[in-house]
Amino acid sequence: MGFKVAFIGAGSVGFTRRLTLDLLGVPAFADLEIAYMDISELNLDMVYQLARRDIEAAGLTRVKLTRTLNQRDAIQGAKYVINVARVGGLEAFQSDVDVPLRYGIDQCVGDTLCAGGIMYGQRGIPYILQICKDIRDVGVAGCRLLNYGNPNAMLTWAANEFGGVETIGLCHGVIGGHWQIAKALGLPANEVDIVCAGINHQTWYVSVKHKGEDLTGKILAAYEKDPDLTKTEKVRIDMLRRFGYYSTESNGHLSEYVAWYRKREQEITDWIDLGVWINGETGGYLRVCTEGRNWFETEFPQWMQSPPLPIGPEHRGHEHGSYILEGLETGRVYRGHFNVVNRGCISNLPPDCIVEVPGYVDYNGINIPRVGDLPMGCAAVCTTSVTVQRLAVHAAVKGDDLLLRQAFMMDPLTGAVCNPPEIWQLVDEMLVTQAKWLPQYKKASAAAKQRLAAGKAAGTLIPTRQGYQGAARLHTRTVAEMAADRNAANKQAGEADKAQERPAAKAKAKAAKAKPVVKAPAKKR
After folding, report:
1. CATH number of the domain within which 198 lies
2. What is the pTM of this model?
């Protein structure tokens, strides 16, 4: 069964290597052609060498693996394209976190909503639309795009509505929460059946059953009795109390999507835990991504000396991608939760938005059942975020900085922390700082630069907290510091899901005592 799969942004070692091994773990895919593409020749070459070594060690002689810096060449003749790119890399990601922080917007992740997520979308949407154009031009007829990139809902929305390519968004958040719920209930995960519905990173476990018994109403009591979860999932548990349903996404993610938990500096530490970045640490995901990238680049020669990773059905991971392709190509039924255009699946969310809902894959395609109404409160939370997403998507497509500013204003946490003049100035700063990744905003970035310069000269700029490190920022470890635990460092750098492993209590206590937070004077109004 031979066909071509193209990875765009293949320099991401965690996702690219993991997904490649998963695909090649399907026995029917022994004749697969895989093309890696990235704009970084260094990153691309390192991932390519590792994957080629894995393939050769497994004796998969009919698999063809290629690499290129040319996106169009990678997509030429592809039946499936997988997007794992981070547009702007860690440099842009740094500004997604640090510039809003000067205005008091304290983000843990900044890749889905809030100021960082909105700007990430502005960079990623033009890029994914170019992927769609190349798919239409040189991909095989009916080529599908599987999007792992964030902000997942925004990119998937743009590709479907403006890119003209059937696109499905994929995320492991539902899976992680499923495992956590099963553990809290004291049950094996494979015996707990779930139905989730909502939008990416704000999906709700609307049904949790064990052997036909509905346990949805018992989740809160289980979490409140768990000594670990009551410390690490304070935001999620509070949302469960107030809305009646558990949210898929982590404590840190969820805390920045709503208006209530990160708007007051002095209260942020009441809602988070510093044992693992995903529980709410300021700039936590930026820290672990930076550490992982530095470690991988430094330790790559040692990675090449370590044993190849095994390939086979028993070694496949939990990411959806390989199972979807297996279902489409072999007819083997796969059930998962996917991000798709709503089209009435969730009847009380807008039909044009991207929803995360159950789906079934087989020879007939990706089939999405009707969910019906979300609980009213859950729908209200999602609807607010959908409004931000719609504004941000249309802003990115049109290069309309007024829509961009309105997206910032409508964002729950941004609006809770900043007033309109502060938001206008913040957007100007973001447009200037990220101008080289925002071609659609060329004129708007130039005008923003002039306004900021004029305001500085006149002394009329709103003062911000220069050098402010946030309420709960930890030290970014050097490679030398990470070398104290090489196994943990290798795992962090190599995993696609960088929050799978939860350290023991001692490690959590050690992290909580990490480098003190740097405080800065309160900003002036």
Report:
1. 3.90.110.10
2. 0.94
